[in-house]
Amino acid sequence: MAGSTTGNRFQVTTWGETHGKAVGAVVDGCPAGLELCEEQVQAFLDRRKPGQSRYTTKRKEDDRVEILSGVFEGRTTGTPISLIVYNTDQRSADYSGVKDIFRPGHADYTFEAKYGIRDYRGGGRSSGRETVGRVAAGAVASRLLQECGIRIVTYTKAIGPVQADESRMDYDEISRNPFFMPDAGAAEHAASYMEELMRKQDSAGGVIECRIQGFPAGYGEPVFHKLDAKLAQAVMSIGAVKGVEIGDGFLAASRTGSENNDSFSAQDGRICKRTNHAGGILGGISDGSEILLRAAVKPTPSIGREQQTVNRDGEETLLRMTGRHDPVIVPRAVVVVEAMAAITLADALLEGAVPTMDKLKRIL
Amino acid sequence: MAGSTTGNRFQVTTWGETHGKAVGAVVDGCPAGLELCEEQVQAFLDRRKPGQSRYTTKRKEDDRVEILSGVFEGRTTGTPISLIVYNTDQRSADYSGVKDIFRPGHADYTFEAKYGIRDYRGGGRSSGRETVGRVAAGAVASRLLQECGIRIVTYTKAIGPVQADESRMDYDEISRNPFFMPDAGAAEHAASYMEELMRKQDSAGGVIECRIQGFPAGYGEPVFHKLDAKLAQAVMSIGAVKGVEIGDGFLAASRTGSENNDSFSAQDGRICKRTNHAGGILGGISDGSEILLRAAVKPTPSIGREQQTVNRDGEETLLRMTGRHDPVIVPRAVVVVEAMAAITLADALLEGAVPTMDKLKRIL
Amino acid sequence: MAGSTTGNRFQVTTWGETHGKAVGAVVDGCPAGLELCEEQVQAFLDRRKPGQSRYTTKRKEDDRVEILSGVFEGRTTGTPISLIVYNTDQRSADYSGVKDIFRPGHADYTFEAKYGIRDYRGGGRSSGRETVGRVAAGAVASRLLQECGIRIVTYTKAIGPVQADESRMDYDEISRNPFFMPDAGAAEHAASYMEELMRKQDSAGGVIECRIQGFPAGYGEPVFHKLDAKLAQAVMSIGAVKGVEIGDGFLAASRTGSENNDSFSAQDGRICKRTNHAGGILGGISDGSEILLRAAVKPTPSIGREQQTVNRDGEETLLRMTGRHDPVIVPRAVVVVEAMAAITLADALLEGAVPTMDKLKRIL
Amino acid sequence: MAGSTTGNRFQVTTWGETHGKAVGAVVDGCPAGLELCEEQVQAFLDRRKPGQSRYTTKRKEDDRVEILSGVFEGRTTGTPISLIVYNTDQRSADYSGVKDIFRPGHADYTFEAKYGIRDYRGGGRSSGRETVGRVAAGAVASRLLQECGIRIVTYTKAIGPVQADESRMDYDEISRNPFFMPDAGAAEHAASYMEELMRKQDSAGGVIECRIQGFPAGYGEPVFHKLDAKLAQAVMSIGAVKGVEIGDGFLAASRTGSENNDSFSAQDGRICKRTNHAGGILGGISDGSEILLRAAVKPTPSIGREQQTVNRDGEETLLRMTGRHDPVIVPRAVVVVEAMAAITLADALLEGAVPTMDKLKRIL
C-alpha cells in the first residue's frame, strides 16, 4: 500500500499539494446507505480553517468541499466517495526565498533526500494543507460512527506548558475559546503564554486528547493490527505529532500492577470496569469503555526568528521566514486528530464485523 | 491484511498460542543472498528467555528455533523463511483456575467479547509468548540491517519510577545488569525497588529506549505510512506498551519552536543537524541522524495480590493468581522492541528502495 | 484493500460514476522524476473515445483530463498524481426507463443485491465509463515503462468469429481500421459482420491481444502474486472480460510436453528461448522474452432487441433498450487492456526492484 | 503484500521448498467457532497425493498434516491456524544432474535471474510441492464454505485433446477413474492417450473445471477486485495454469449479445437467470447462480526425451531427465484448483459481509 492510502475496509487515499490546483481524498469501502451531504463534510473542514483567531495564520483558506462521486440521492452507494477542495489563496511569491533552502524542522531536506525533486512552494505535499483530505475523509467516517451510536470528543489538553485541569474539565467550554480547551482558566493562561511567544517571534506546541464514547467491545485485530497500534499509527502520521499515548500512557510505566489494573465489575448484568487506566483497549481489542488517546504536537517549526541552516548546495546560511504562519498549530490540529481516530475506528468496525462463524451465518 | 501479519515488502506473519504445540513466524520478502543461520536467530531469542534473574518468571522456556525453509547453503533464497519454536514447558494445570474468570489487565474479556471462544490456557494468543515469533523474525531483519551498516541499541530507560541518568549512560553496562539498563547505579536502585514490590506481591512497568544508528536519509513513505507512524504502530502493537515517543516526544509539546527546531549544518560537504530533538525523522522520512524512540510498558497485570473481577457468567468474584509470573516484563521486552523496530526499518528500506526514476533505471 | 484500488508500489485508485460530476484516478507511488504532461494522458484517453466510427456508440464523450497534483515543473514528484475528467454529456433521461429494471448481462441486479441501492443512471459505477480512470492511470504507467525501454502493442485479435490471421499480422494496420486489427483483410470481414449484426439490433464481442516487448527477466513474485496471476486479475477485472490466456493459453492444454516446452539457447552470451509458447513468463517470473496475453471480451449486453427480464419487485417484464450503445465494445477496450497491463507491469518493476542483498546495497 | 500471501480477511501464507525440512501454511482471519480437525485437512491432501495411479509420479509423498495452532477443543479460535507437513521422501541425488542446468518449461532460469541463487533440488519453491500449503489452507476454506451451505465440485474436463462430453457428465464418475473425469468413456480414451505418450517419454496437459453451488448473490468487490478477477488471479497463480475462463469464457467472444445475455426470471419470488453463460458473476459480483470456472493446465515440462537447453554459464547442452515425474499433472491439480477457488470465495464472503449500513448495524 502506497504512502497516501490508509485503512483496509474503510480505505482513505489523499492527494494534493498546498500550491497545486486542489487537494482531495477518495474514501472507498464506506457501506452503502449512509446519509451524507457536502454540508456535513464542510462542517468538519471549517474546524481546521485558519484565520479564526489571532493565534492561527492569517492565510485565507476558504475551503469549499465538493462530493464528486459515491453519493446518490443523499446516500452513499458503496462506491468510492471522491472529495475535492480547490486551492484558492496561493501566494507562491511568499515562498520563493526558501526554494533552495532547507527549513529547520520541516521536511524540505528529507523530501529532497528521498525524491531528488520537491514542490518547494509552501512545503508541497508535506504542508499542513495535506490534512484537508484527512479531515474531509474523517467527516465521512464520523458520520458512519455517529449512525452506530459512537461519539468522539477531541480537545486541546495543553498549549506549551499550560495544561487543562482534569478537575475543571467542561466539554461545553471547548468551542468557546480559540484553543479548543475544555477549561476556561487554562485557555486564558494559554492566551497570555501565546502573546509572549508571538512577541518573541517564537511558536508553541501542545497536547491533544481524544475520547471515543459508545464504541462496542470486541473490535481490533490481535497482534500487529491491535486497535491501539492502528490508532498510534494514525495519529503519529499527522505531521507534527511526536508522541502518542493510550489511556494512562507513560504514567502507567511508573505505576504498579495493583494501581494500574482495572478491575472488572458487573452492572445490570453487563461487564464493565471500575477504572479505565487502560483507555478502553485490552490486548489490542476494545473493552467497551471509553477509548482515550493523547497526541504530543511539536511547536510550529516556521518561526520569525533568524535560524541557522543550509541550502541545497550544502552551504550554511541564515534563514528568516516571513510568510504567514501559525504561532501554534494545536487548535487547528484538534479536528485532524479526531478525523484520524474516526477513520481508524470506522475501519476497525468493518474489519472486525464478522469474527465468528455465528456472525457470518447471521448475515448471509 | 489479517492481524498477525505486518510489513509490505519485508513481511512477517506470526502464529501460535502459549499452550499450543509450537509458536513461529514466516518471513516473506527477505532479499536473497543474506547469510543466515539458526544460531543468529537463537541469540535473539535467548535475550527474551525467562529465568535469567530473580526479576523474571521462573517458568522454563528452553526455546530452540529451527529454520524450516527459505535458507539454502547458509543464505536466504528470497522465498519465505519459516521459523518454528516448539513449546516445551506447558503446565496447563496452573491455569485451570482462571478458565472462566476474566483476569484484570489481561485480554481474556476482550478475546471472549470478540471471538466467543478463547484458549484460556495462559492467555493463548494474547500471551507474552506470542512475541517469540516477533523476536525470531526480528533477528532476520536485524541481520539485514547489519549487512547495510545499520546498528540498533535498545535498553531499559526506566523501571517504574527509577530512571537511567542521561549523563551516566554507558552502553557497555546494558548486558551487565538484569534490567538491561545503561546505568549501573539506576540498575541497583531498580533492584531495590523490585525487591520491595515483590514482597508486596505487586509488579512494575518501565520505559524502553531504542536507538538506530547508520540508517540512511530518505526512507519512509509520506502521509499515512510515515516512518515514525510505522514505528509507532510496530511498538504499540506489543502487548504491554501504552505509549510511544519519537525523539523528544511529549517533551517537545511543552517547548517552543526555537528550542525544538534542529538547525542544519554542513560537515565535510555532508548535511547534518546540530541537535536531534526530532529523533531522526522529519515529515515521516529519515533524515540520516540517529532514530530515537521510546516505549512505555505497563506493569505486569498478573500479580499475586487478591483482585476483584468477574467470571464469564458476569458474576463478581475475587481472584488470587498463583502461576509463575514476571514481576516486571520490561527486561524481557527490550529485545521485543528492538525486533519490532528492526522489522519496521527493514521493510522501510525495501519499500523505499526506488523512489526515483534514476534509481529504478540504475537497477534494471 | 478496497475494490477500487490496485497495485502495491505503483498503486491506482479510481472513482466516479457515469452520470456523476466527474470520474478520475489517483496514482500513488510513481517514482519521482518522470516527465509527464496532460497531453500524454489525453492521447491515451482519446483511444477509448466513442464516436470514432459507426461501430461504437454515438454518445459524445469529449473527455479532457486534468492533472491536479503530483507533477511539478513537468516531472512527477513521487507524491500522488490526481487525474480528473469531468463528465459532460449525461442524458439521464435516456436511462429513466430502466430505473427499476434489471438489464440482462449488466450488473444492475448484482449491485442491488450487494448494496441495496444503486445509481441507476447508465450503470453508475459498473458502466464502461469507469475505465476512464484506468486508462488515465495506465497512461502514467506506460510513460514509466517507456522510460525503461519497454513497449506495449495491443490490438483486436478477433471480432466475433472473425479472426486476424497470424501470418498476415502487420502492426502498422492497427491504427488504420476502426477495429484496431493488425490485419486489413480481417478488418474488412469484421465490418461486414458488424453491419449484419447491427441490422439485427444485436452486438458482438471479440478477443484482444497484448504484447509487451523489452520487459526484463526476473520480475514477478512467486506463488500467489506471480506475474501472470497479476496480469490475469488485472485484465479479468475489466467489465466485459470473461477469459484470459498467457502465451498459448488453452491451446497448451491439448499439446504435449515436447511440443510445448520452449528450449533455451544462447545468443551472444545471452540466454534466450527458441520458441515462446510460455508467453514470456516461467514460474510466474518474466523470462526476458515477449510477454503475450489475450482477453476474451463478451458481446455488449445492451442490445436493441426485446429481452425478457424482471424488475426490482421480482416481476417478469420485457425490455427494449433505446439508448446509444456500442454494437461492439472491443475496439474501445483495446486501450483499456493495454492500460491494465501497463499498470501491472509498472507495479511489478517496482515491487521486484530489490530481490537480492546485492541490489539493495547497490542502491543505498 | 509479499508473494506467498493471498487474501485480505481470510488470509493464507504458504512456505517451504520441496527438499527442505517441511512445507506449510498459515491461515489467518478464519472466523472463530468453525469445527476443524486434522482428518478434514488430511482428506484434502490425500487427493493430491502421488502414486495413486500409473499416470502420476511414483514418488512417495506420505504427507501427514499437523495443526500447530489456532484450533482449541475442536474449534477455530480466530487466531492463525498453522499447518505443517514434514517432507519425508527427498532423494536429492536425483537432482544433482540439473544443479547447473536450466530445465526447459521450468522456473530454474527465472528464479536464477531474479534471486541470483536457487534451491536447485527439485525446483525448490517453484516445485509443484509448493501446492501442499495451498491445499491444506483450501481445506480450511472449504470447511467454512460447507458450513455456509456452499458446495464445490471440481473435475478434469480434458486430458490433452480428450474432452469429457457435456451430455454424458456424471459427477459420481469423478472418483472412479484416475483422471477424475466426470465421463467414464472419456476417461478410457484419456488412458489410451496417456499410454501412447508415456511410451514416447512425453507428457500431457488438460483442462480443469470447477463449479461452486449455493454461493449467495451480492459478493465480490467492484472494479479491480471483482470476484472473477480474484478467481482468475488465484487459479492462474497455480504453477502450470496458462489460461482461465469464467462461464462461457472465450466462447462468449464469438457469440452475439442476444445469444450471450442471460435473461432474468422470477421463480417463487426469487430472481434467477434462465441461462448461465456468465458463470454466476455479473459486474464482478456473484449473481446467485452456479459459479463456473475453467483452467488450462500445460503439459508437465519434465519429460524423459532429450531436450536442448543451456547451463548457468550460458553454454548450450543436452538434457535427459531421469527423475520420477508425472506424465500428466492434471489429476493431482484438480484439488489445487478447488483449494484456490475455496480460499478466494471464503475471502470474498468475509470481505463482502457488511456492504451496507443496515448489515453493519444488524451485527453490532
In short:
Four copies of one chain form a homotetramer. By secondary structure, chain A is α+β, with helices and mostly antiparallel strands. Chain A is 27% helix and 22% strand.
C-alpha Rg of chain A, in Å? 21 Å
Proportion of residues in extended strands of chain A: 15-25%
How many independent structural domains of chain A? Answer: 1
CATH topology of chain A: Chorismate synthase, AroC fold
CATH superfamily of chain A: Chorismate synthase AroC
- CATH domain class name of chain A: Alpha Beta
Q: What is the SS-derived class of chain A?
A: alpha+beta
| Count of discrete alpha- or pi-helical segments spanning 4 or more residues of chain A | 9
Order of helices and strands of chain A: EEEHEEEEHHEEHEHEHHEEEEEEEHH
Range of helix content of chain A: 25-40%
CATH architecture of chain A: 4-Layer Sandwich
Low-confidence stretches of chain A: none
Q: What gross morphology of chain A would you assign? A: globular
Biggest interface found: A-B, 115 and 115 residues
Commentary on this structure:
With 364 residues, chain A is of the alpha+beta class. Chain A has a single domain (5-363), classed as Chorismate synthase AroC (Chorismate synthase, AroC fold, 4-Layer Sandwich), CATH 3.60.150. Chain A contains 9 helices and 18 strands. Chain A has helices at 38-47, 108-115, 131-147, 184-199, 227-236, 250-253, 257-260, 330-351, 357-363; strands at 5-6, 11-15, 22-28, 65-67, 71-72, 75-76, 81-86, 151-159, 162-163, 206-213, 241-246, 264-267, 270-273, 281-282, 285-286, 291-297, 307-310, 316-319. In chain A, the strands form 6 sheets. The first copy, chain A, has a 5-stranded antiparallel β-sheet, covered by helices on one side. Chain A has a 5-stranded antiparallel β-sheet with strand order 9-8-10-16-11. In chain A, helix 5 (227-236) packs antiparallel against helix 8 (330-351). The longest helix of chain A has 22 residues, at 330-351. Chain A is globular, with a radius of gyration of 21 Å. The model of chain A has no long low-confidence stretch (mean pLDDT 94). Chains in contact: A-B, A-C, A-D, B-C, B-D, C-D. Chains A and B meet through strand 1, helix 2, helix 5, strand 11 and helix 6 of A and strand 1, helix 2, helix 5, strand 11 and helix 6 of B. Strand 11 of chain C pairs antiparallel with strand 11 of chain D.
